[in-house]
Design brief:
With 856 residues, the chain is mostly beta strands. The protein has 2 domains: 111 residues, Sandwich (Immunoglobulin-like); 578 residues, Maltoporin, Chain A (Beta Barrel), CATH 2.40.170. 5% of the residues lie in helices and 60% in strands. It is built from 4 helices and 48 strands. It has a 22-stranded antiparallel β-barrel. It is found in: Cell outer membrane. It is a multi-pass membrane protein. It holds the Pfam family OMP_b-brl_3.
Length: 856
């Protein structure tokens, strides 16, 4: 680990030195505008679109059959063109990137022309209602932006483009997030951003899917918003992670197929296809993933009692394996009613089946370290789920640029089933069986209905202002029945265990509305917003009802201030208030006996935690590099945490509590450099201090500490179409902060592994990991590629928790399979043809179009 730390530190210092040597942009000219723009080269993707409507300036009536042509700016050669429809609309599709001139002519009117720019960030542009009159009506220009890269950094958002990340090919969303700056993912797939849990969205909406249920090959990009505005949900202590799924809009048809194999019986495959023709855009996506894995863990605990008189020891060893099979399907269509109205419908179907096995051996010893007994517990279970999500959306754009209204309905329904059996054998100190083994079975069934209804409105105000407003309703209903049966050693019959069996259900409702206003005064920008959320919760456990939160509105303001300077520099100061509400599994008072020596129980009296976040940022762009640095402070009241208490002689009970407060503050810097042509390096360092205070009953303690996280991603293009990517992460030791449960980790699929005892007591040991991948592109236009990747090259990724309290001392080590070699193949196909499936126009229509084009 010391070697890895030295390598990371060396690269960071070298990169800072390289950044200092990078020449600045020309004075008064943004660096983005000095980059080479698109030129409409044949090898560039042709996915651009320009559309609008032609009107008579005098009477406002449509102008039919006017000539609209797109010319290359460099030589005025014609790219494409058309005649306006009877209602005056025109629509130019299948356009390459680059600078162009749009020219409009019609007999009796003064011709119009204006420069436009099509870029990867602005592929579709509504030119609005264009009025032809004696005076020239200019069309809005488009700012030149850079070419798509692995990371796009803004002052308020970082976008990670997944197709550029080679080390996650053939994996899941968990593997993708491990490479995103500022993000840390533990062994259970729980996600933290700046040492706190974010809110995770899929396509901008909450989802019941866990990260391991989303294939990496189905993800287009990941958006990280560290301090969201009032437009976003208030849930999440450290912001929002939005996973954007692939949805192509290229003209014609295109798609890809992929397949992969990995060490330890790991397989993946899938494909996607997109067809766009006229008013319709149809897409479909399917992926299958079977990643068998193993895990092991060790717990060593000393239980103190009566000043050492009754001290005893516990040693636990766990060996487990899991055989999951995921299937992910998605299909849908967009229908353009006209140029400004589009309706979208999509359906996701996700299925999973798991087989988990664990052997947990517990060894008990007295204060003299003499073994007093052994317990051998075998756990075998099967788990399956089905998840269905239907999304319906409508979007209307106005003739006024950037004015739009949208409405979305998201309906999710899922169900799960689990069947398991436990066989526990008590043994004497010599390992010999004592009596008959105890046989226990369980089965459970759960179902969820999750509905969101949302509408958003955006309207530019004045020259630089923008008003945003919207409303959202979230409805969730969950129910589950869990039944446990014990085998009678005399009769052999399976008898119900009322103490361990339970049934519960809950429903929650969130009603929200927001308003945002933003504007600029010269180089100074500001945005102020307010979000109001009404949260209603009701839960029931075996007939007992729980309602721990009052149905009162919550107010969540946000303020952003920014100042731009010369040489493409910007400062920003922002503030937001957020909330993290306890989930039902933290609230339910049911006790989990999966591991008899490490039990867990919910707390129906938990309160929501509220966080105030303040962030000050600086951004600077050079020609081939950019930098963003932030100083942040986060104060959380009623922080949801856990505390472990000894019960009996050798058992710990972990319960959820509300800590008094937690303060976290730190500094983060992210740099992206093009060191040499074809070699890009992105570095991220986050240094933070966390202070926590707990006062509950007779428990009074504080836990504080300094830690840091560093990530480096290096991508190098080599001759013969080879690309090499190296990613390294180092997490320094940190105080233990339990996951809020919202990390979206392994969910029901992790049932075969010994539970990690997260607690507000103790310290997590640091760890490092390095991932390596190489890709070879071949065939025409690099349509095919082969990727060879090796994760956790030095096999150093593991979880280690050290706890010391007056009642017990515990060291916990957990390791999951992490060094995996994968080989993946992908092939991309398609034809970018805007007239696909259309009948050819008659020769007369072609001649008419030709005559009109000649008028230019």
């Amino acid at each position: 680990m010391k070697k890895c730390y030295a390598v990371i530190a060396g690269i960071l210092m070298w990169q800072i030195h390289a950044l200092a040597q990078t020449p600045s942009a020309a004075p008064g000219k943004p660096a983005a505008q000095q980059r080479p723009g698109g030129t409409g080269r044949p090898d560039m993707p042709q996915i651009g679109r320009l559309y609008g409507k032609l009107l008579d300036a005098g009477n406002g009536k449509p102008i039919p059959y006017a000539s609209v042509a797109l010319l290359r700016q460099r030589d005025s050669s014609v790219v494409t063109g058309m005649l306006t429809k009877p209602n005056g609309e025109f629509n130019l599709e299948n356009l390459p990137f680059g600078p162009f001139i749009i020219r409009i002519n019609f007999m009796g009117y003064t011709g119009l022309q204006k420069k436009v720019m099509i870029t990867p960030q602005a592929t579709e542009q509504d030119l609005g209602n264009i009025k032809m009159q004696a005076n020239v009506k200019t069309l809005q220009g488009v700012e030149v932006t850079g070419q798509k890269s692995a990371f796009t950094m803004g002052i308020d958002k970082k976008v990670f483009n997944v197709d550029r990340n080679l080390t996650s090919v053939g994996g899941t969303a968990t593997d993708v997030l491990k490479n995103v700056p500022s993000v840390n993912v533990d062994l259970d797939g729980n996600v933290t951003v700046r040492n706190a849990a974010p809110n995770i969205f899929v396509d901008g909406k909450p989802s019941t899917l866990t990260l391991d249920q989303i294939p990496a090959d189905a993800i287009e990009s990941v958006e990280l918003v560290t301090n969201p505005s009032a437009r976003y949900d208030a849930e999440g202590m450290s912001g929002i992670l939005n996973i954007v799924l692939k949805k192509n809009r290229k003209a014609g048809f295109n798609g890809s197929v992929n397949a992969g194999i990995g060490t330890g019986n790991k397989y993946n495959g899938g494909g996607n296809i997109n067809i766009r023709q006229g008013k319709f855009n149809v897409f479909a996506n399917y992926n299958i993933n079977a990643n068998q894995s193993w895990g092991d863990g060790t717990t060593s605990r000393t239980n103190f009692s009566n000043k050492g008189a009754d001290t005893n020891y516990l040693l636990q060893n766990s060996n487990s394996n899991s055989k999951p099979l995921f299937q992910f399907g998605r299909f849908g269509a967009d229908y353009a009613i006209d140029n400004r109205n589009t309706i979208s419908l999509s359906q996701n179907i996700v299925a999973g089946n798991f087989k988990n096995n664990e052997d947990l051996i517990s060894t008990f010893a007295d204060r003299n370290h003499i073994i007093t007994g052994i317990s051998d517990r075998l756990n075998n279970n099967e788990f399956s789920f089905r998840n269905y999500t239907t999304a319906l959306g409508f979007k209307h754009t106005y003739a006024k640029p950037n004015k739009e209204w949208s409405a979305d309905l998201n309906f999710n329904k899922s169900n799960n089933d689990r069947n398991g059996e436990y066989v526990t054998q008590a043994r004497n100190p010599l390992g010999q069986p004592l009596g008959q083994s105890l046989f226990q079975t369980n089965n459970s069934a759960g179902k969820t209905t999750f509905i969101t209804i949302q509408t958003d409105y955006v309207n530019p105000v004045g020259k630089n202002g923008k008003l945003e407003a919207g409303a959202k309703v979230t409805l969730r209903d969950y129910s589950s029945a869990y039944n446990v049966f014990d085998k009678d050693t005399l009769t052999g019959h399976m008898l119900p265990n009322a103490q361990l069996s339970t049934s519960y259900k809950y429903n929650e409702e969130i009603y929200a509305g927001y308003a945002n206003f933003s504007s600029t005064i010269g180089n100074f920008g500001y945005q102020a917003g307010l979000r109001v959320e009404q949260y209603v919760y009701a839960g029931e456990n075996q007939g007992t009802k729980y309602k721990p939160t009052k149905a009162v509105p919550g107010f969540f303001p946000s303020v952003y201030l920014s100042q731009k300077f010369k040489h493409d520099q910007e400062l920003q100061l922002n503030y937001s208030r957020r909330v993290n509400r306890p989930n039902f599994f933290q609230l339910i008072p049911y006790r989990d006996y999966t591991d008899p020596q490490n039990q867990r129980e919910g707390n129906p009296n938990l309160k929501p935690e509220f966080t105030n976040s303040l962030e000050f940022s600086y951004a600077k762009n050079w020609k081939n590099s950019n930098l963003i640095g932030s100083i942040y402070f986060r104060n959380t009241n009623n922080m949801i945490s856990t505390i472990s208490t000894p019960i009996g002689a050798d058992t710990l009970l972990t319960q959820f509590i509300n800590a008094n407060r937690s303060n976290s503050y730190g500094a983060e810097i992210t740099m992206k450099n093009q060191v040499l042509k074809g070699w890009d390096v992105t570095s991220n360092v986050n240094l933070y201090q966390t202070d926590m205070q707990v006062n509950t009953g007779d428990q009074h303690f504080t836990n504080s500490g300094f830690s840091w996280l560093a990530k480096i991603n290096s991508e190098t293009k080599l001759p013969a179409n080879f690309t090499v990517q190296v990613s390294a992460t180092y997490q320094a030791p940190a105080i233990a902060l339990p996951s809020s449960g919202g990390g979206g980790g392994r969910g029901g699929g992790g049932g075969g592994f010994m539970m990690i005892p997260t607690s507000s007591q103790g310290t997590i040991k640091g760890f490092s990991t390095v991932d390596l991948a190489i890709r070879k592109d071949f065939l025409k236009s690099k349509a095919a590629s082969v990727t060879l990747s090796l994760s956790d090259v030095f096999n150093t990724r593991q979880y280690e928790l050290n706890q010391l309290t007056p009642a017990f001392a515990q060291d916990y080590i957990r390791k999951r399979e992490s060094r995996i070699l994968k080989l993946n193949f992908s092939y991309r196909f398609g034809k970018f043809d805007a007239s696909l499936f259309k009948k050819k126009r008659s020769q007369g229509n072609d001649m008419q179009m030709g005559d009109q084009m000649q008028s230019f």
